Structure formats: structure tokens, C-alpha cells
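Researcher: Here's a chain I'd like modeled. Treat it as a single chain, no partners, no ligands.
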Amino acid sequence: MIPLRSAILPSFMLVTVLFNSCKKEKDKEETCTASTATISGSYKITAVTYKLNSTAPEENHLTDDFTDACDRDNVYTYQTNGTYQIQDAGTVCSPSSDDNGTWSLSGNSMVVDGGPSTIESFDCKTLVLSLTDVEVTGDKYKITFTKQ
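Model: Modeled as a single isolated chain. C-alpha cells:
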């Protein structure tokens, strides 16, 4: 018969190692900071919401008449050299919505073709940007990009 202590100790050590490795991975994700290097990559838009004002309910604008179906599957690629490309992937729009331009970071702001947006959150996989005062003073669009 194996002594209880000799059976528990290796199991405890294994659980401790697994727990710590998961914790390190989780901490790594939570401490991701927005930089040109970490944001660079290819994304798809996975959510678009709109609020008329701070007290209005948030409306889904990804799957309604405000976002064309052919634009919902586009791929947005941000390069480390400060350029971006939009590829009209999947269902192609007519005319195509392929596009390109420049982007940069300034504090918690991402500037695309000169237009600033606020980085609401970024975990190296999901980038959430907000734009305010787009349609009327006090409104807010929130766009969620998910890395591919």
C-alpha cells in the first residue's frame, strides 16, 4: 500500500503547477497594453452598438439597417507601419468596400485617417473603440473588433 503522504504530495505539486501556469496566462492577458505592436493584426467587427445619449438604452447596430450585410464580414488589417487595409471579404459589396489608410495611437486614442476614437478596452484579442458626437451631441458608437 502506498503511504497517503507520498500519493498526495505529487498530486498537490501537479495541481499547484497547473494552477500557477493558468494564473500566469490569465495575468498576461489582463496586462496587455495597447501599442502599435499589440494592436497590429487582422480583425473582424463582432459588435456595433449605439447610444443616443448617456441615459438611452444601447442599440445593436451590427445586424440592423445601419450596417450593410456585405460589410459585416470585412477584414480590417492594421500594420505596424501605421497603415491599414480593409478587405471586402465574404459577401462582396457593390461597389467593393476595400479601402486603406493610416492609423496611429496617442494615449488611449486610436486615430484612423485623422479621426480619433477612444480605446475602451483591449486585451490583445478584442479591441473596443468608441466614437462620440457622431450623429448628435452626446451620442456614442461602440465598435468591437476581434482578432482573427
